[in-house]
Amino acid sequence: MGFKKIKQSLIVGIALLVSFLINLPRVLALFNIVDELGTSFTHPSVKDIIVRFIFLSMFSWIVLQYYTNWKFIFSKLSKYIVSVINVVLSVVIILYGVKAFIYIYQFYVDTMLTNQEVSLLYFVYIVVLIILVFISGILRYQVIHQEDLVEKELLKQQSLKNELEALKNQINPHFLFNSLNSLNSLVRGNKEATTFVNKLSFMYRYILQSGSEDLVTLEEELKFLESYIYLIKTRYRNRFDIQIDIDDEVLNEKIPSLALQLLVENAVKHNEISESNPLLVKVYYEDGNLIVENKIKPRKTFVDSTGNGLVNLNKRYVLLKKQNISINNDNKVFRVKLPTI
């Protein structure tokens, strides 16, 4: 969520209120509601109060504006540097602010301020600065809190939306499995068709179950791959073959679910498969990596592909293992290395 500025109407309102409260004793003294402020202070007049009120309002507006909005232009700097900048600017605002007020006051009101009044001015402006910094912190906290509430509400709505979507998706698997069972009963006399339906059913069940798991063992993945290969061979017969060379001692190694199937599918999708150019995919384990490779024989027909499969698989590896997959394309052999976990 981006930086949100404090409304100008709020800043101006607070600046005017602070200036009014600070100058209130002089207003009361002007109308003889309270006793005189003392012989060490100039007698309040309309001009005196107007200059003090306007100047303090401007001072308050500048301080509030800086601490609520302007200082965030330094947000990319370190906190230490920002703190130093805040202190330096605050000192500059106080020193030059009071000096400017004294000059304007003496020019417009035509009255010299006593040394005691100048000292009191510095004290008052320092106190006002501290109060305004505190108020700025409260205003900024309220904005951040409001943004957090909005963000939490959005997340809550998104969570409810995802929950509803999950409930909807639960209907689809039941429908598909019921349909597969019905299809199985229809082709019961055909052994090859029955096996095909059973393999398809197993694959879909595995996909649903692995959806909740980030990693699966090589043994589980190879069992799933066996069903997928059966479906591919049913379509391509002797035009497709696969060689799997993985020792039993590494079957407990883990990889992201459906990684092997994606690579085999990728080979089938992008390479020509014909009687004259059969496709052979090799799957083997070497130096902590699961390797899938095939000779490159580009399809002559259009391939409907988004190109996101390998990219998404690499992102999963980065998230799970902080490691990238290795893709090698030397114009003859396409090879992908998957680090095991």
Quote the average pLDDT: 82
Series of secondary-structure elements, N-terminal to C-terminal: HHHHHEHEEHEEHEE
Helical residue percent band: 55-70%
Low-confidence stretches: none
Report the strand count: 7
**Integer-rounded radius of gyration:** 38 Å
Quick one: biggest sheet? 5 strands, mixed
Beta-strand share of residues = 5-15%
Strand order of the largest sheet: 2-4-5-7-6
What kind of assembly state do the chains in view correspond to? single chain
The 3D shape can be described as rod-shaped
Structural class: alpha+beta
How many helices in DSSP terms?
8
Distance between the termini: 36 Å
Descriptive notes:
This protein is of the alpha+beta class. The longest helix has 72 residues, at 115-186. It is built from eight helices and seven strands, in the order αααααβαββαββαββ. Strands 2-4-5-7-6 form a five-stranded mixed β-sheet, covered by helices on one side. It has a two-stranded antiparallel ribbon with strand order 1-3. The chain has helices at residues 8-30, 46-68, 79-108, 115-186, 191-210, 218-236, 259-270, 309-321; strands at residues 215-217, 240-245, 254-256, 279-286, 289-295, 326-329, 333-339. Helices cover 62% and strands 11% of the residues.
